[in-house]
Amino acid sequence: xxxxxxxxxxxxxxxxxxxxxxxxxxxxxxxxxxxxxxxxxxxxxxxxxxxxxxxxxxxxxxxxxxxxxxxxxxxxxxxxxxxxxxxxxxxxxxxxxxxxxxxxxxxxxxxxxxxxxxxxxxxxxxxxxxxxxxxxxxxxxxxxxxxxxxxxxxxxxxxxxxxxxxxxxxxxxxxxxxxxxxxxxxxxxxxxxxxxxxxxxxxxxxxxxxxxxxxxxxxxxxxxxxxxxxxxxxxxxxxxxxxxxxxxxxxxxxxxxxxxxxxxxxxxxxxxxxxxxxxxxxxxxxxxxxxxxxxxxxxxxxxxxxxxxxxxxxxxxxxxxxxxxxxxxxxxxxxxxxxxxxxxxxxxxxxxxxxxxxxxxxxxxxxxxxxxxxxxxxxxxxxxxxxxxxxxxxxxxxxxxxxxxxxxxxxxxxxxxxxxxxxxxxxxxxxxxxxxxxxxxxxxxxxxxxxxxxxxxxxxxxxxxxxxxxxxxxxxxxxxxxx
Length: 483
What we know:
It contains 13 helices and 16 strands. By secondary structure, it is of the alpha/beta class. It folds into two domains: 3-33 and 40-398, Alkaline Phosphatase, subunit A (3-Layer(aba) Sandwich), CATH 3.40.720; 402-475, Arylsulfatase, C-terminal domain (2-Layer Sandwich).
């Protein structure tokens, strides 16, 4: 690294570390005992939701290359769920059903429109909180319909009704309680990065909030989704020549998975080259480091207002991303890099410095937050509260996890093995991975006689999940999924 670049690197690290030190003073993240016994006010909730941020992109959780001092502080002062996943999508826009499942607690096939929207009769997490007296405030990306937005939030700022955008020219709306958002009310703050725009709105909310009731602040970023744009100083913190290629890097995917020409896969030419993938990883990491710094600003504002003792802070991602793994670039697949997401929480009732490997989905956040806030879980929610795991009452909530992508990919995993089944253009392809010895999902054991029993058992479990979730008719297209 050139001397000038290194000086910039160290200077930026210093500023980030200072930010981390401020956000590190999060006494509310240590344990519930930090609250005064006389304080019966329900906890505030600050929810940071990243766009396309993979599970293995937090330094303190095992990625030595990435720089995330503020997320590191959250993880050290709270609890990380290391086996958090999304269930999948029936659309290439994976983040739409991911967000719908998060906010409703519903499973994929019990949403509307092929899993793309929250049914109006299903009560959302913000609705539960609002009815209990919370101020529900949204900032950033809303990849759902506008009527659902209106019933979820009592206020908001810098609202982006879209999926992706130029990061420095985000078209946003101010909140309208009538629920009307015509095009002529949309505006842009030219030259301001999305992560800074949304964090500005969050810090402004925190520093000016004077209402006596608790708040639910939901900040949905568009980073690190492409286009991967960020201030240059963050890109200079990484040397593409030194970025380590993932063990599952491949020039091309070994077979047609049904989605090799989707938009995300066009972000890099075929065959993928080490140089090109390192460039993409560098930009991905830099964008996450910039996002981390903006999260640090919000945490600093939270501390300044004296709210940390009584605030639950959550960080999660809506889905993962391949970025060169298995010859893929996007999230339209069922490999671990695309369905495995980060989930960290701290605050009242959440232990400090814990790591739990219980299987969970993002849809479990809905009932978990209801329970932490002392509120009843909606009957329509299908997720499981993570509180029994946090309290040590249980070690697991599920024995297996199920995943789906469109009508031609299905998967299931247990603690050791993972099965992925494809049916593309009349051809059936099966993959079986031993995750204990092959966490990168490289060695396919589907044809191994020694693993015939494992394959049969997981196929039975896949069918059980499909029946449970009303999925049989969504997958087959004439494909016999029976044993």
